[in-house]
């Protein structure tokens, strides 16, 4: 319960900074808000700890999902969905790819019950509650929209391709390339087997 509060309120702080940047842009409009969540201690109750947050009234929509597929494809075209996607991209860029807010859901622009993925080492002492694979999937699947462009965010497609090219260039320049060539297909095969077993 404490972790849930910590994650949501951390994501809320990022959302406030995002809102300050986005709202200053002409034509950006309303910005998603992550509502606060509070921890309540009830010593007389059988379950002594609970969380309390604002009640959201209306159609509850998942704008992104926990499997890391950055935006629910049915919601991708909505303004709230696009702005949630841009928020994810903004956080990813601001933290140099070390942190991603995910599982964005709520009513309109008010969001709750979010998750955070971090690299294994965490980010500035903070560790998220979602798999690292969400960050990798987001980097591979994200498609920029007009709000990403308005904020001047860098395309992840270009960054992802540059990282892949740099990795392949390094392996070509290493000594004993004949040894490396023998081991690369084996690693590739193991990775493919692992990926296919997940699907």
TrEMBL record:
Main location: membrane
Catalytic activity: L-threonyl-[protein] + ATP = O-phospho-L-threonyl-[protein] + ADP + H(+); L-seryl-[protein] + ATP = O-phospho-L-seryl-[protein] + ADP + H(+)
EC number(s) reported in the record: 2.7.11.1
InterPro entries attached to this UniProt entry: a-kinase_dom, Kinase-like_dom_sf
Record bears the keyword Endoplasmic reticulum: no
Cellular component terms per the entry's GO annotation: basolateral plasma membrane
SMART domains: Alpha_kinase
The protein's name in its UniProt record: Alpha-protein kinase 2
């Amino acid at each position: 319960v404490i972790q849930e509060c910590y994650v949501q309120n951390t994501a809320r702080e990022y959302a406030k900074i995002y809102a300050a940047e986005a709202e200053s842009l002409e034509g950006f409009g309303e910005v998603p808000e992550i509502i606060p969540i509070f921890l309540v201690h009830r010593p007389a109750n059988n379950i002594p700890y609970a969380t309390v947050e604002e009640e959201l009234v209306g159609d509850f929509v998942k704008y992104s999902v926990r499997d890391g597929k950055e935006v629910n494809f049915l919601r991708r075209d909505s303004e709230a969905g696009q702005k949630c996607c841009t928020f994810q991209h903004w956080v990813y860029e601001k933290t140099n790819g070390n942190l991603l807010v995910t599982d964005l859901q709520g009513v309109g622009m008010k969001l709750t019950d979010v998750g955070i993925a971090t690299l294994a080492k965490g980010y500035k002492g903070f560790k998220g509650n979602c798999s690292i694979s969400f960050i990798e999937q987001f980097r591979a699947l994200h498609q920029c929209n007009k709000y990403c462009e308005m904020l001047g965010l860098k395309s992840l497609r270009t960054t992802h391709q540059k990282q892949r090219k740099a990795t392949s260039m390094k392996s070509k320049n290493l000594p004993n390339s004949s040894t490396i060539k023998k081991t690369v297909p084996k690693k590739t095969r193991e990775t493919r087997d692992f990926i296919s077993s997940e699907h």
